[in-house]
Design a protein that fits this description.
It is built from 3 helices and no strands.
């Protein structure tokens, strides 16, 4: 599999997001790619703060034990933007590395 393949890029993205259970499913690249959502990592801290804010908003809206549709759309869209940009950044990294090596 080439680093240019969508499948490879997605694998790296999923490793960074902790999407694999590495105890049950070994992924070779996991020795090189860190889960950015493990305890104490930058992304985990931000995600925890987001969840706390989400819960506060739901309480203010009178929905303390449920989800708010609009908040879910906001979060989902921001995650989608982040993934899109991550994939594009990966592509740009390959492009500029190849260009520099010419």
């Amino acid at each position: 599999m080439s680093v240019k393949d969508e499948e490879f890029k997605t694998k790296i993205y999923d490793l960074m997001n902790g999407s694999y259970n590495l105890e049950e499913h070994l992924v070779a690249e996991s020795s090189l790619v860190k889960d950015e959502f493990t305890g104490g990592e930058y992304c985990e801290k931000l995600y925890s703060q987001m969840l706390e804010a989400y819960e506060r908003v739901c309480r203010r809206l009178g929905k303390p034990d449920t989800e708010d549709k609009d908040m879910e759309i906001i979060i989902s869209n921001l995650l989608s933007i982040g993934k899109y940009q991550s994939m594009k950044m990966f592509d740009y990294g390959i492009f500029f590395t190849e260009r520099e090596n010419e």
